Amino acid sequence: METNTKNEAGRLFARQVAEHLLDVQAIRFAPDEPFTLASGLLAPVYCDNRLLLSSPAARRTVRDGFVHVWKEQGLHADVITGTATAGIPHAAWLADILEMPMAYARAQSKEHGRRCRIEGGSIAGRTTIVVEDLISTGGSSCAVVEALRDAGAEVQAILAIFSHGFAAARQNFEKIKIPLYVLTGLDVLLAAAQEREKLSGAAVRTILDWRADPEGWSIRHK
Length: 222
What we know:
- By secondary structure, this protein is an alpha/beta fold.
- It has one domain: Rossmann fold (3-Layer(aba) Sandwich), CATH 3.40.50.
- It has eight helices and eleven strands.
- It has helices at residues 8-23, 56-72, 88-98, 139-150, 167-176, 186-195, 201-212, 214-221, and strands at 2-3, 27-29, 35-36, 42-43, 45-47, 79-83, 102-105, 118-119, 127-135, 154-163, 180-185.
- Strand 9 (127-135), helix 4 and strand 10 (154-163) form a beta-alpha-beta unit.
- The protein is globular and about 50 Å long.
């Protein structure tokens, strides 16, 4: 798993995306009153990247950040594939500026009509880049990769807006042998939040403890 911070332009995008996440309140911190996730686990951070859609400036920054990664990493593909639902708009904006075809992949196949899981035409025999909004454990992204492979596509890489940086995600992407490029991560976000005086040093330590062992942290705080 790689974050797009290896050069000056990458570091600038990482900071700008983090600032946008804070501006639109896509990131919420609650170290003392944790959120309950869909999995049942507790978390001191909650990320809703769909709020980025409300800001034209944020949308452009994410799109331009993805274009930078595309060029910097020398990526190539026949199709851009967004993950349903939050990855779809960002995949569309990237495909538009690159003048490329686009598809999207659902978590599950439809239960009616043609019962498709992948929409946008056949991708058999084609290469694709997957666009995600958020990486937690990486399980859903890996499932999309497997679905695309089953449909006959070759997945070149995954692009994502934000990652918590969990060890589980790194392990999952290593298993499927797919590179992941992330515009910004938790460390950059925490630094930006501290500069805005939104987080204390103690709160940052709590969040980093959670990232190191999310399941254990959840158990200890129930």
